[in-house]
């Protein structure tokens, strides 16, 4: 829930409104494609019940392809009390306007101070309709708790509606399931 709110709070104000086909078009990462809007070295702040600060090296908007490409992403989310709740980074992100789906690639990590845990992968995708955060079927995803316990596997799924984490295979490690104080 925090991830969805963060991604929507940060990406929607920058995005505008269009409709994608949920597939990265050829050349959308720069080769042969010319963005309608390009912003370099941007800092965005969204103040709602929480505060999100996001920095990006580059944002390229392809309205004709209904997507936006982000490079060099870092963010921090603060709660109503001003306490840091979530931070993370990704080398690259693609935001699909109509579905509000998001793909993050490269070095991707999130750290939740509330959950006292860190998530690391080379690729994560958010499916807005299903409220599902997923890694690629054969891609490794690591969960590391601040207490030192960790688990890694493939076929990662985090079901937002149920707050349930699933690995389909290749799971190794031990993860503390104790509730974090909130």
- Residue share in helices? under 10%
Strand content: over 45%
Largest sheet: 12 strands, antiparallel
Structural class: mainly beta
* Fourth-tier CATH superfamily name: Lipopolysaccharide (LPS) transport protein A like domain
- CATH top level label: Mainly Beta
Account of the 3D structure:
The protein is mainly beta and 182 residues long. The protein has a single domain, classed as Lipopolysaccharide (LPS) transport protein A like domain (lipopolysaccharide transport protein A fold), CATH 2.60.450. 8% of the residues lie in helices and 53% in strands. It is built from 1 helix and 12 strands. A hairpin with a 3-residue loop joins β1 and β2. The longest helix has 14 residues. It starts with a helix and ends in an 8-residue tail after the last strand. 27% of the residues are buried. The N terminus is likely disordered.
In short:
This protein has 182 residues and is mainly beta. The protein is 8% helix and 53% strand.
Protein traits:
182 residues, mainly beta, lipopolysaccharide transport protein A fold, 1 helix, 8% helix
What's the structural blueprint in terms of helices and strands?
Blueprint (H helix, E strand, L loop, with lengths): L1 H14 L21 E11 L3 E12 L4 E12 L5 E13 L5 E11 L4 E11 L4 E3 L5 E6 L4 E5 L2 E3 L4 E3 L2 E6 L8
């Amino acid at each position: 829930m925090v991830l969805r709110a963060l991604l929507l709070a940060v990406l929607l104000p920058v995005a505008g409104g269009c409709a994608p086909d949920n597939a990265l078009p050829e050349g959308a990462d720069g080769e042969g494609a010319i963005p309608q809007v390009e912003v370099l070295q941007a800092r965005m702040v969204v103040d709602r019940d929480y505060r999100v600060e996001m920095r990006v090296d580059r944002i390229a908007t392809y309205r004709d392809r209904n997507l936006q490409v982000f490079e060099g992403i870092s963010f921090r989310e603060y709660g109503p009390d001003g306490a840091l709740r979530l931070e993370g980074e990704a080398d690259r992100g693609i935001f699909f306007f109509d579905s509000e789906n998001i793909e993050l690639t490269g070095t991707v990590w999130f750290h939740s101070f509330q959950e006292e845990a860190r998530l690391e992968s080379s690729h994560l995708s958010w499916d807005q309709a299903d409220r599902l955060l997923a890694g690629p079927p054969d891609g490794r995803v690591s969960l590391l708790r601040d207490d030192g316990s960790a688990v890694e596997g493939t076929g990662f799924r985090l079901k937002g509606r149920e707050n349930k984490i699933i690995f389909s295979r290749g799971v190794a490690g031990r993860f503390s399931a104790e509730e974090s104080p909130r």
